UniProtKB/TrEMBL annotation:
Pfam families: Amino_oxidase. The lineage of its organism: Bacteria, Bacillati, Cyanobacteriota, Cyanophyceae, Leptolyngbyales. Residues 13-486 form the Amine oxidase domain. GO terms for biological process: carotenoid biosynthetic process. Keywords: Carotenoid biosynthesis, Oxidoreductase. Belongs to the carotenoid/retinoid oxidoreductase family. This is Phytoene desaturase. One of its GO terms (molecular function) is oxidoreductase activity. PANTHER family: PHYTOENE DESATURASE. InterPro entries: Amino_oxidase, Carotenoid/retinoid_OxRdtase, FAD/NAD-bd_sf. It comes from the Bacteria.
Amino acid sequence: MSQLVAIVGLGPGGLATALRLLGQGCEVEIFEAADRVGGRMRGLQDGAYHFDTGPTILQMPQLYEDLFASAGLNRADYIEFQRVDPYTRLRFWDDTWLDLTTDRDALKQQIGEWRSDLPEAFDQWVKRLERMYELGYEPYLSQPARSLLGYARLDEIPAFLSFKPWESLYQHFWKAFGDDRLVYALSYPAKYLGMHPTLSASVFSLIPYLELAYGVWHPKGGFRALAQALGRAIEDKGGKIHLNSPVRQVLLKGDKAVGIELEDGRQIAADAVVVNADFAQAVQSIVPESHRGKYTKAFFDKKQFSCSTFMLHLGLDKQYDVPHHQIYLSEHVRRKDKPFVDDSALDETDPPFYVCYPGATETSAAPAGHSTLYVLVPIPHTGHGVNWSEQQQSYRDFVVQQLALLGFEDLEQHIVTESLHTADTWQDDYFVHLGAVFNLSHTWLQMGPMRPPIRSEKVESLYWVGGAVHPGSGLMTILEAAKNTAKFVAADLTGC
Ligand SMILES: Cc1cc2nc3c(=O)[nH]c(=O)nc-3n(C[C@H](O)[C@H](O)[C@H](O)COP(=O)(O)OP(=O)(O)OC[C@H]3O[C@@H](n4cnc5c(N)ncnc54)[C@H](O)[C@@H]3O)c2cc1C
C-alpha cells in the first residue's frame, strides 16, 4: 500500500520533491499558505501586466528534464524553454560594458580589448573549471552532505583541495584574471547566493562556468509559468495540492512526525512530513518547541544570513530595445568595507542593481506595444533595521532615476502600474526569516554538514527541502536537494 507524504509549502523545493515522490509511488498531499504555487517564484499580476517575483535565470535545463522524467513525464509537454544569449549585459563602474555569452570567441574578443592576455587566461580558467565540475558537481553538490568526518577521506583529499576551500569567490577570480571587471562579471551575477564575492565560497565559481557551458534559459511565460507547469504535473500524477492552507504545526507521536495541523484546526495524518517552508522561520514556528533541538533563536542570531532585495515591478506603456538580463555594477561593488560587503546598510548613492526585461524574449506578459520591467536591488535584511514604511517611496524614486544607466530613459512617464517589495514584504508575505531571500549565507562555515540536514535530527519521518539545506539557495541547487529529500523518504518508508 502506498504511503502518504504531507508536504508543507510549494516553492521550487516542494514542487520538485512532490513530483519525485509521486514518481516513486508515494501518495502526496501538499499544503501551501499562499493562493498560488511557486513560493518566491509564484509571480504576480498587476492589471494587465504579469511579473516574475523571484528567479529569472534558469541554468542547467537538463535538471528539469530529469525531474519530469523521474515521474515518467516529458518536460516539453509542460513548459517550453527559450535560450537567452548573450545572456547578461553588464555595465561597469568605469562606463565599460561586457556581454556575457556562451559564444566563447565573442566573449574573448571583448575581454581581449581590455587586456591582451585575458583571452588566454580565460581559456585556462575554463579548463580548470571543467576539471572542478568533473570532480565536484556529482560527488559533492549533487549528493547529500556528509558529516564533517565523512569528508576526511584520504582518497578524496585531492578533489577537495582542488576547490581551494581557503579561497573566497573573489580570490578565485582575482588569481585567474587580475582584472576587477572580469572578477565581478563572473562572481557578482551569482546573485542568488545573495552575498559579496569576498565572503562567498570559491566553489560557487561553478555557477558562471555552468552558465557558459549550458547556457541561460527562460521558461516561456516566465518562472511563474514554470511553477504552474510543475503544479500541473503533480496533479496529473495524482498529487493533491491545497492552496490557502497554512500549516500551524507538525504533529508528533513521541519523536515521530505523524501528520500536520492546519491553521483552521484540521489534522491530516501522514507517514512522513516534508517541510519546504523557509527553514529558519518554520523550525521556530511549526515544529513543537520540545523538538527543535539546537535550532533556537539564539542559534539563528549567531548565523549569517544573505541580503534581502528591493524589487520594483513596473508595467510600461512602451517597449525598450534592451537585452533580457542586465546588471549595473557600480563602484560600490568593489568596496571591501563593512556596510558594502555585508549589506548591513542601505546604499542610497550608487548601489549595484539587476534588471530583467522579459519583453526582449517574449511579449506575453503585457498588452501589445507595452512591456514589463523587474528591478532588483540588494538591500539589508530586516535584522539591520531599515524603516521601509518611511523610506520606500524615496528609495523607489531614486531607483527609477538610476534605471537610465541601463537604457531606460524617460521611464517615469511610461509607468502605468507599479508594485514594490522590500525586506519586510519578503518576511511578512513570503514567510522568509529576516526577509533574507537567499537564505543562510554560503560561507564555507555554513556549507555542507554545517547547513541544516535534510533528515531531521530530532524528529523521525520529518524532512526538509529548500534553500537552507545543502547545497544551498538557487533553483539548480534546490533541485539537487529535492532529489536527495525524495531518496531519503523512499529509503525510510516502505511502499514508496
Ligand atoms: C528576488 C529573487 C531572485 C532570485 N533569482 C534567482 C535566479 O535568477 N535563479 C535561481 O536559480 N534562483 C534565484 N532565486 C532563488 C530562488 O528563487 C530561491 O532559492 C527559491 O525560490 C527558494 O525556494 P524554496 O524551495 O526554498 O522555497 P520558497 O520559494 O521559499 O517557498 C516556500 C513556500 O512555503 C510556503 N509556506 C511557508 N510557511 C508555510 C506554512 N506554515 N504552511 C504552508 N505553507 C507555508 C510559502 O508560502 C512558500 O510558498 C531568487 C530569489 C529571489 C527572492
